[in-house]
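Re: your question about dynamin GTPase

S., sorry for the slow reply, the queue was backed up all week. Below is exactly what I fed in.
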Amino acid sequence: QSSGKSSVLESLVGKDFLPRGSGIVTRRPLVLQLIHIGKSEIETRRQESSDGEHIEEWGKFLHTKNKIYGDFEEIRQEIKAETERMTGTNKGISQDAIHLRIYSASVVNLTLVDLPGITKVPVGDQPEDIEMQIKEMCMKYISNPNSIILSVTAANTDMATSESLALAREVDPEGRRTLAVITKLDLMDAGTDAMDVLCGHVIPVKLGIIGVVNRSQADLNNEKNMADCLRDEASFLQRKYPSIANRNGSMHLAKTLNRLLMHHIRDCLPELKTRVNVLIAQFQSLLNSFGEPVEDKGQLLLQIITRFASAYCNTIEGTAKNIETTELCGGARICYIFHETFGRTLESVDPLGGLTTLDVLTAIRNATGPRPSLFVPEISFELLVKRQIRRLEEPSLRCVELVHEEMQRIIQHCGTQQEMLRFPKLHERIVDVVTYLLRRRLPPTNAMVENLVAVELAYINTKHPDFTEANLVHKTAVEDTQDRRLVKESGTPAKTAPIPDVTEIKENKELRKCGPLNDELSLMQFASQKAFPMSGLYDLTEDWRARWLHQAPV
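Result:
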């Protein structure tokens, strides 16, 4: 605070246009853009002026749009009024910047930011943490790697205690973008000078240290113009610091800042261009996500629903535009569930699993009643077969559940369309309705599977060709029985009837008992693996799709 920052800016512009006073005067950041103009632009401006007024220098505020300020005293009053509008009249501060452009033939192309000076003790309406707030405001601007830091310190203070240099070193420890400015060279104590400071012997600054002479309060009271002030400054430097006079002063500061800014822009331009291109791409993508303007809401709603339904059906049929390459989805995954998951589960079911020899014998004996059995009763066969067929019902119902889950996943897959992202509430509603439709088809599908198993349980088709082996075994058993009867009646062994050993007799008995069971369950496995995907796919997908396309989901 009160180090002469605003005076430095005025010397760069060559005009007296900033508010002055005691204490903290700069209470909002001032973004000052200096634009050099030629004679042709001045003439064009004069011709465009409605009253033909000849203005060679003028200013524009961002908050007043296209209003032209030809009087710099008017610019000063506008800065003061805009500051008080946001911060009040009792020393309050604000982070909202004031943007000002100054067009002149006597300035170099330069953009500067005038920040409030760091103060320690709050005054007026300032909060208790005023120092921290101002430091945070300064850090917001100087932490930008594309900015050049202008550290202003008064010559009549110890540079080693400079708050501005300490703050600059926090964000620029190497000093690659920090320039030090020493003000009030003419106010130093008699017999002292700033030669060591200006030469960098006290604290070296990589971009340099430039000394300037500010206007005194007497100069301000007498309204001394900037041209006379610059001449007096040059005279003072030649008299006091002749060896380094050409490397100091407001004019040299302006040229140095312009040169540094141009070099800095040149160095930062590639990275800046990359950042701008990335931001353009991001915002263009965001803009595209908003879609076209909504003119007919009903038509747009119908289009979104139709596109979703088409995308859903295409995903099942495998004709979707965006096909997944990392995992199976849609119809392909349903096919995998039918033929791999469900098929392998059926194949893993052992037809004789859970049946022991004792179970088979017990079933046969229970089916014959009080009479000893000569042949295996068919009722015992049916009892055992039905018991084994029921084991196929559970994996079949699990297959229905897996297909239902996959059809639920397809909803999320189709919900990534731009229209869905644009209207999240509509997306949520469509998902709810489609989920409800799928859930409503689940009980009928389960009932259909249970009916398929019930159909197989209702009629055991022993005439099927797969029972040929069992018939041959039965025929062999009948012939053996007849041969043994002939041997017993005649008392002589039959030539065509070899005497089987004990092991062979046992195997034949087991084959006669279990062979039909094995054949029947294997036949049921094959029939289920073939029939269930066709009927299940119809009930879960085709029938559902027909219902979906003829029902409005919202």
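The longest helix spans residues 502-549. The domain at 143-290 is CATH 3.40.50.300 (Rossmann fold).

Happy to talk it through on Thursday.
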